[in-house]
Design brief:
Elements (H helix, E strand, L loop, with lengths): L2 H43 L3 H26 L4 H21 L3 H30 L4 H31 L7 H4 L11 H16 L18 H8 L3 H32 L3 H27 L4 H21 L2 H15 L2 H10 L6 H9 L4 H16 L1 H4 L4 H13 L11
């Protein structure tokens, strides 16, 4: 490869990495927005905890149904076409959310949006490994998590600012335009209109980036059944899958019910205090990602995971049993420790198999159905024993995550500075 070709290839790789990080930013916006809106959804549609938990369940059910097919398709077809399809699905899902303001339609639209998020993430991770190298995967997946956290931080801020201004009759751009299409009582949907514009921007970006071509042809690529037979010979594939179920269950269990916990147990307004706690949660996630990026340059990822999981357990105990001031600090502080769970576990998993990474990506992201289980388990228990008691379920997935530090045996050594 000539020097000018190497330079062009390097520049395109940078563009691709930026695009993929912006895509994780979008996923963070989508998932955190849903968490921030749970109290408003309960009020607007007049539903109980159980029905409210169906909405995050529908979002994460899409991961269960779509990730494995997405992984198989990603091993055979153009990444660009797959990502364009995913972005279009998100556009349709969000449009349904804001146009048809009914509970039943919103569940369907969240399923479509979750399908898009599933396809985007399943396709992105093998691309990142291909462009950045297996030895740098833990670092770059943590960077992706950082962008996800930034997006998640922006969601409640955007939601709170737009909703508050619309409720107080502000008429400057773009609120003057949104007020003409959003009915009274549903001002909380205004943030989704901005997400629709962001998705259109991402669609335009796909046409200015060259994606790596598939090495395999459709005819020569192994079938999904053959690939999974080879993967399932590795017992760690199942161990990592169950760990990811626990990890996402913990993550989404907190996000779905933290605002409602503060409202029910401590009497805090979800529009102001609840949204600010979510913002603080994602601020701590950003700090946790930066801290994780530094720690992963000097220490083995398994040791990092063990220390941070222990910190999350202690902080959760203070969050559930502390006074209002203590709980307001401790609950968001959990994210400081939890921020690198997903990227570290996923990088260990990917570096524990030698091939079929696209198919493996689909299988691993199917574990996101834990994001549906966590909120449903907590919400259903909360209807019986109260939300404060049901949140103790979160200690179970933390114990599972903690165990990874003792049994994980990656085949590719993590690149460290020391």
């Amino acid at each position: 490869m000539r020097p000018d070709q190497r330079h062009a290839h390097s520049v395109n790789n940078v563009k691709l990495i930026v695009f993929l990080n912006l895509m994780f930013f979008l996923v963070g916006l989508l998932e955190s927005m849903l968490s921030a809106l749970i109290p408003e959804i309960i009020r607007s549609f007049q539903i109980n905890y159980g029905l409210a938990s169906v909405m995050p369940f529908a979002y994460f059910l899409a991961f269960t149904l779509l990730c494995i097919p997405a992984g198989i398709i990603a091993s055979k077809y153009s990444s660009r076409n797959i990502l364009v399809f995913a972005l279009l699905s998100a556009f349709v899902g969000l449009s349904m959310f804001v146009v048809f303001l009914r509970y039943q339609t919103s569940v369907v639209s969240l399923f479509l949006t979750g399908s898009a998020a599933a396809i985007m993430q399943v396709t992105a991770l093998p691309l990142i490994r291909n462009v950045c190298g297996a030895e740098n995967l833990a670092f770059h997946t943590t960077l992706n998590q950082l962008m996800y956290s930034v997006g998640a931080l922006c969601s409640p801020v955007i939601y709170s600012w737009l909703t508050s201004n619309m409720l107080h009759g502000a008429r400057f751009f773009p609120l003057n335009m949104l007020s003409t299409v959003i009915p009274n009582g549903f001002e909380w949907t205004s943030a989704y209109w901005l997400l629709i514009l962001y998705i259109l921007f991402m669609l335009v970006m796909t046409f200015f980036i060259r994606f790596p071509s598939q090495v395999k042809t459709i005819a020569s690529a192994p079938t999904g059944t053959q690939a999974y037979k080879e993967l399932f010979r590795n017992k760690y594939v199942f161990f990592y899958f169950l760990t990811m179920v626990a990890c996402v269950s913990f993550d989404q269990g907190i996000l779905a019910w933290m605002s409602k916990f503060f409202q029910d147990v401590h009497g805090l307004d979800p529009l102001t205090e609840g949204a600010s706690r979510l913002s603080f949660y994602w601020m701590m996630a950003i700090v946790g990602c930066f801290t994780g990026l530094i720690m992963l340059r000097f220490f083995d990822s398994r040791k990092v995971l063990a220390v941070l999981t222990a910190g999350a357990m202690i902080t959760l105990l203070f969050a559930l049993h502390g006074t209002t001031p203590v709980s307001k600090i401790a609950f968001p502080l959990i994210s400081l420790f939890q921020a690198v769970f997903w990227p570290v576990i996923m990088s260990l998993a990917f570096n524990s198999v030698t091939k079929h990474h696209e198919v493996f990506s689909g299988f691993m992201f199917t574990a996101a159905f834990g994001g549906a289980l966590g909120p449903v388990i907590i919400g259903s228990m909360g209807d019986v024993v109260g939300l404060g008691a049901s949140l103790h379920y979160l200690f179970i997935p933390l114990i599972v995550v903690f165990s990874v530090a003792f049994w994980a045996k990656p085949l590719v050594a993590q690149k460290k500075s020391l």
